[in-house]
Specification:
This protein is an all-beta fold and 748 residues long. The chain has a domain at 31-230: Immunoglobulin-like (Sandwich), CATH 2.60.40.1190. 1% of the residues lie in helices and 56% in strands. The strands form 4 sheets. It has a 24-stranded antiparallel beta barrel. Strands 1, 3, 6, 7, 8, 9, 12, 13 and 14 form a 9-stranded mixed beta sheet that branches. It has a 5-stranded antiparallel beta sheet with strand order 2-4-5-11-10, with no helix packed on it. A hairpin with a 2-residue loop joins β36 and β37. The longest helix has 9 residues, at 4-12. The radius of gyration is 27 Å and the shape is globular.
Length: 748
């Protein structure tokens, strides 16, 4: 049998296509160079628009099935020597019902009117830059990855927008500098384009510029080809964004509860640099990056969890071509780089090969996940490391083959972690695709048993594998998955909290499409899952039955029953049955979104290895009293009742978290954001098998004023106040901080 490594190498450099051709979205559309200057003011009155290419055939893909839309949309396309231009006329018979609040960047979502332009500048029909605009001219930008259907709004791009509400709807203009895009250097470029309009009224109507069949497993693959793009600039764009910050911190003078004492003011300097030596290549450099303005993560209750909690990446430096790290096994999770001192990154394309290489020095200070088969530990990363992450990918139509490499070399304490292996996506058709990944790891743990008992310089070598077949038909959808993770596999640059298991999972869905009533799609399903250790011991056996729906006012809801789940906790097999559910709906213009989830029934006490009765209730929502003010709230409450034996029974713990974020958007460029988050945990220590406090909790408050000309030319002024609960449950001030940041992007 041919080895997997040899088969991968032969396929990577083979000229033969390995996938079905991408579906046709109509004949190529020729884009002509602009006949004159275009001023980005939201009005389509410049003479150059009269000779622009026109997209005016659109299809309602939800709730309709490629039917004629209820509203008309016309898109104009042209370009000059520096930029690509998009003009939008979104007709509306009732302009007074347009949902157009002022929002922060990347907060244009399905509750409000907007148009998104997907540009596949590599013409590979696999990923695209997504640029959104709403009727206020606000922006949202993302990378859409067809392979995983992941829409990642973390990256930011330079582009200009303006919009205006008119008597017959709204109009918008986009100016997208070629320096913000990546494409090959050739006499005439061919790109792909797909335009999507979100029209939320009694339904959330999805309207596309290409027909997309129900059950299709791709979106960007339906892009229409653009031709006529001649003489595009070949790179040479430079952006340097130096910053200066100032901070004054107040800390307790004599421990928690004592008066705060102001520390000496501290200033800091740094710089972010981006240079595009060619149109397909980008070099990023950061020195002493500052992330103080990044919005805090939404709190999650971490009282009774089997594995570590995941948080998304938000830091700009790590976001160029983030889709190249989007693989079936999450072997790259850049938040493991907790305190980068400097970083260098090269991203580009050589012929049919796309690549990105990241090198950085991490000063440490965070936690390292120590994975296991039934849970994970956390160890303090009290040392610095050098980190290398690289990805190579070759596209074959809508499919690809890739290679991923990561390396963390610890400094001063010894040890390393190196991971490498291929991954692939084979899209056989619009309804069938296979994904897979195989990794090997070589690890030498740090020589720091004082930080973690297992860090004694031991050497570990192992593997991880993933293979999945997905069928997304109109009526039937199914997914079959197998995984195999060796017990000594480590991915210190990834998010892999569980190892030492073999998994088999099968899911079967039936799709129904009612033509009237509340629901527009109903999908009953059954999922079965079996997990065992390499030596055959049961780790988890579970069968779920449920139904999920979509309907009016963007309703999304589901209900699921775990009839009998068996789960290994420590050396015990515990069983539980429970019901879970979720819902989300967009009621209207002012009360724009509300949702929640629940889990009720038997629950596992992971800390004490037993089964009790408990629940988890969460609620979230967004209220927009005016077009300038948005109030976002989140609340979560968990509880667990147990029988500890010997007559001891009762409430083990109750944990709740509440978060309120208020944002006032003065304009599309200036906002004031205030966040308050409160966590409270009450426990019954006598019901635990180890010593634990009866109360714990915290409060985190922050306020931030921001003025942003673009995402790198900014002014931030902020205040933060953190408090911790003392043993009596009272909140005591832990620290406070006042900070300012100024950054300016110099471009050439």
């Amino acid at each position: 049998m041919r080895s997997p490594a040899l088969a991968f190498a032969l396929a990577l450099f083979s000229p033969l296509p390995l996938a079905a051709e991408a579906p046709s979205a109509g004949p190529p559309l020729e884009v002509r160079r602009a006949a004159g200057k275009i001023t980005i003011d939201g009005r389509l009155d410049d003479a150059a628009w009269q000779q622009a290419a026109v997209l005016d055939t659109f299809y309602e893909t939800y709730p309709g099935d490629n039917t004629e839309p209820k509203v008309k949309t016309v898109v104009f396309l042209t370009y000059d020597q520096d930029a690509f231009y998009v003009g939008i006329h979104a007709y509306d018979p009732e302009p007074g019902k347009i949902r157009a609040p002022f929002v922060q960047r990347d907060n244009i979502i399905g509750t409000d009117d907007n148009v998104a332009v997907f540009l596949d500048t590599r013409n590979d029909r696999r990923s695209a830059v997504e640029l959104r605009v709403n009727p206020r001219g606000n922006q949202a930008d993302a990378i859409y990855n067809d392979g995983s259907s992941n829409e990642d709004f973390s990256p930011d791009f330079f582009y200009d927008t303006a919009a205006e509400i008119t008597s017959d709807g709204w109009t918008a203009e986009m100016r997208i500098p070629f320096s913000s895009l990546r494409y090959s250097r050739q006499e005439e470029n061919h790109w792909g384009i797909l335009v999507w309009r979100n029209y939320p009224r009694d339904q959330r109507y999805g309207i596309y510029s290409s027909p997309i069949d129900r059950g299709s497993n791709c979106t960007v693959c339906h892009s229409r080809e653009l031709t006529g793009l001649r003489g595009l600039p070949g790179g040479g764009h430079f952006v340097g964004a130096p910053y200066v910050t100032g901070q004054r911190l107040g800390e307790p003078r004599n421990g928690l509860g004592s008066p705060l004492e102001d520390q000496s003011a501290r200033t800091d300097l740094g710089v972010d640099v981006k240079w595009t030596p060619s149109a397909s290549n980008a070099l990023d450099l950061t020195i002493n990056p500052d992330f103080s303005q990044i919005e805090s993560d939404v709190g999650q209750i971490a009282v009774n969890n089997q594995f570590a909690i995941f948080f998304p990446e938000k830091r700009p430096f790590f976001l160029e071509r983030l889709d190249l790290f989007d693989t079936p096994i999450q072997a790259v999770y850049t938040r493991t780089i907790t305190d980068p001192k400097w970083g260098l990154r090269d991203t580009g394309k050589l012929g049919g090969l796309g690549y990105t290489v990241l090198l950085t020095q991490d000063e440490g200070g965070g936690s390292v996940i120590i994975p296991g088969e039934t849970g994970n530990d956390l160890a303090p990363q009290d040392f610095s490391s050098k980190v290398l992450v690289g990805s190579l990918r070759r596209d074959f139509g809508a499919s690809y083959l890739g290679l991923l490499v990561t390396d963390r070399e610890n400094e001063g304490v010894g040890g390393h972690n190196r991971v490498a292996g291929p991954d692939f996506l084979w899209r056989r058709s619009q309804t069938d695709q296979m994904t897979g990944q195989f990794l090997v790891s070589d690890t030498e743990t740090p020589d720091r048993p004082d930080l973690y008992s297992g860090w004694d310089g031991r050497k570990l070598t192992s593997h991880a594998g993933h293979l999945e077949w997905l069928h997304t038909g109109r009526d039937w959808t199914w997914r079959a998955t197998v995984q195999d993770f060796g017990e000594d596999f480590r991915a210190d640059e990834g998010f892999v909290p569980q190892v030492g298991f073999r998994l088999g999972r099968y899911a079967l869905y039936r799709n129904y499409y009612p033509q009237s009533g509340l629901f527009r799609r109903v999908q009953p399903y059954v999922i079965t899952r079996y997990v065992e250790s390499p030596d055959g011991r049961l780790l988890q056996r579970q069968t779920d039955t449920g139904v999920q729906t979509q309907g009016q006012r963007n309703l999304s809801a589901g209900l699921e029953f775990d009839v009998r789940e068996q789960l290994r906790v420590g050396d015990k097999i515990l069983e539980r049955s429970r019901a879970t559910g979720y819902f989300q709906i967009d009621p209207g213009r002012r009360f724009s979104r509300i949702g929640g989830s629940f889990a009720l029934g038997e629950a596992i006490d992971f800390a004490n290895s037993r089964v009790g009765q408990g629940g988890d209730l969460s609620l979230f929502g967004t209220v927009k009293p005016t077009d300038h003010l948005a109030l976002d709230f989140n609340a979560d409450r968990q509880w667990l009742d147990v029988n500890a034996g010997g007559g001891l029974r009762g409430r083990l713990f109750t944990a709740q978290i509440e978060r309120l974020k208020a944002t006032y958007n003065f304009t599309a460029r200036a906002f004031l954001r205030v966040i308050g988050e409160y966590l409270d945990v009450e426990r019954t220590p006598s019901l635990y098998i180890f010593a634990i406090d009866a109360r714990s909790g915290s409060f985190a408050g922050s306020a931030l004023f921001a003025y942003q000309l673009n995402w790198q030319t900014v002014l931030f002024v902020g205040y933060a106040d953190d408090r911790l609960q003392d043993p009596s449950g009272d909140l005591q001030r832990a620290d406070r901080a006042v900070f300012i940041k100024i950054s300016y992007a110099f471009q050439r």
